[in-house]
Amino acid sequence: MAEQPKESTEEEELDYIGSQPLRAGKKTTSSQSQMLEGSIWMTAGSIFSRILGAVYIIPWVIWFGIYSNQANALYTKGYNIYSFFLIAAIAGIPSAIAKQVSHYNAMNEFALGQRLYKRGLLLSIVTGIVCAAILFFGAPLLNDGDPNVTVVLHALAWAVLIIPTMSLTRGFFQGYQEMGPSAVSQFVEQLARVGYMLVSAYLIMGVHKGDWVFAVSQSTFAAFIGALGGFLVLGWYFLKYRKRLGTLAKQSKNDLVVSTGSLYKEIIAQAVPFIIIGSAITIFQLIDQYTFFRIMNFVGNYSSEVLNTMYAMFSFNANKLIMIVISLASAMAVTSVPLLSEAKTRGDCEGISKQVTDAILLFSFVMIPSALGMAAVAQPAYTLFYHLSAVGTSILEFSSYMAIILGLFTVISAIMQGIGENVLAVKYFAYGTIVKFIIQIPAVMLFSAIGSLISTGVGFAFVNWLILRHINREYGINYFKINQNLSKILLYSIGTFIIAWLATKGLYMVMDPNSKVQALVVVVIAAMLGGFFYLYCSLKSRVADQMLGGRVARIRSLLHIR
C-alpha cells in the first residue's frame, strides 16, 4: 500500500522555495514532474478544445452547402484580423504575468505577485476596450475591399472586451503551476462557442435557408459567448483558491517594495515581446491573406470564387485540422515558461539546460508521430470534415509535415521568453518574417496555395535554427540525450505513418471514398493501428520512460509488455 503523504502546516509548506501549490494536499515536485503534469493538463484542455473546434465543421459545412468554401474563406479573413487584435488586447500579459508571478514566488514574495495580477487586471480591461473599439469602428478600413468582412469584424469585436481579462487570470494560475483552471476554462469556452455556432448555423441555414454571410457573422459572435463561459469558470476557481492565496500573501517575506508605476512598467516591458511572438503564426497568416489574392491575380485571371476556395483550403480547412496537432506543442510551451523563469531567477544554468532538453524531447515524443499520423490519414480526414478533394488532401498532408516546424517554434520561442530572452526572440522572428516575404511571391507564383505554406515553413525553420543555436551557446542543449531518443522516436513515427497509410489505402479498396461515415471508419481504424504500434514500440524500448517517467510501467504491465 502506498505511503500517505504527511499533513503539513502552512508554515512548513512555506519552507519550499518556488511556486506554491494552491490545491490542498499537493506538494512541490521536481521541474520535470511539474512540466509533465502541467503539460498533461494543458494538452488535455487544448486537445479537447481543438477537437471540438474541428468536429463542429462537419455539420457546419453540411448546413452551408454550396456556400461552405465561401463561408470558410470569409470566416478565416475575419478571424485572422480578429486574432491579431485579440493578441494586441491581451498584450502578451498572460504569459508575462505567469512568468513574473513565478519569478516573485521563487523569492517567496507571493503578495507582490498577487498585487501584480491586480494591476494587470486594470491594464487588461483598458486594452480590451481600446482594441475592441478600434476593431469595431476600423472594420471598413481593414476589410481589404470585402464588405462582408466588415460584418464579421463587428461580430468579433465583442469578444475582445472579455478575453484579455480571462487570459490574464489564466496566466496568474499558471504562475502557480496550476494548469487545471486554464485547461477547464479553455474547454468550457470552446464548448459554449461551438454550441452557439451550431445552433445559430442550423437555425439560419438549416431551417430558414437564410443569408450565409449573416450565418458566418453569428458563428464568429460565438467567440463572445464562449468567452463568457470560460470567464465564469475562472471566477469559480479564483473563489475556490482565495483563502489559500490570502494565506500565502500574509506569510510573504515582503522584502521587495515595488511602486504601482514600476509594476505597470514591468508588465508592459514583459508583455510587448509576448505580443509579437504570441502572434507569430497569425502574422504569417495575415501576410498570406493580404498577398495571396494579389499574387494570384497577377499570375492569372481567376474569379474571386476560385481564389476564395483555394484560400479556404490552406488557410482554413487544412489549418483547422493541423492546429489540433500544434495545440499539443502550445500546451507544453505554456507549461515551460514559469518553470524556466524560476530556474533563471535561481541562476540555475544546469537546470535550464535540463528543462530545455526535456521540453524538446517531450515535444518530439508527442508531436512527430501526431503530425505524421495526420499526414497518413489526410484523405479520409479531409473527406470527413469537408468533402473528397485531391487538392485538399495534398494541402492537408503538406500542412501536417509543416506542423512539426510550427510546433517547434511554439515551444522554443516560449523557452526564450521563459529565460528572459524576449527581445532576441523578437529579433529572430523579424528575420524569419523577412525570409517569408522574400520567398512568398515566387513560391505562390509557382505552387499557388502550397506556395504560401512553403514560405511559412521556411521562415519558421530559419527562426528555429537561430533560437536553438543561441540556447545551445548560452546554456547548452544535451544533444546526445536528444539524438539517442530522437532516432528511436523518428523510427517508430515513420512506422506509425506507414501502417496508418497502408491501412487507409487498403480500406479504400473496398470503401466509398465519397462517404463521410466510411471516412470516419477509415480514420479510426488507421489511427488505432498506427497509434498502437507507436505505443508498443515506445513502451517496449523504454523510450516512454525517458519522457513520462516511471508511471508508464503500469501501462506496460497492463499491456503485458516486457
UniProtKB/TrEMBL annotation:
Alphabetized CDD domains for the sequence: MATE_SpoVB_like
Pfam families documented for this protein: Polysacc_synt
Keyword set includes Membrane: yes
Name of the molecule in the record: Uncharacterized protein
CC per GO annotation: plasma membrane
Keywords recorded for this protein, A-Z: Cell membrane, Membrane, Transmembrane, Transmembrane helix
Residues passing through the membrane, by range: 47-67, 79-98, 119-139, 151-173, 194-215, 221-239, 267-287, 321-340, 360-378, 398-416, 423-439, 445-468, 489-511, 517-537
Topology in the lipid bilayer: Multi-pass membrane protein
Cellular compartment(s): Cell membrane
Presence of the UniProt keyword Cell membrane in the record: yes
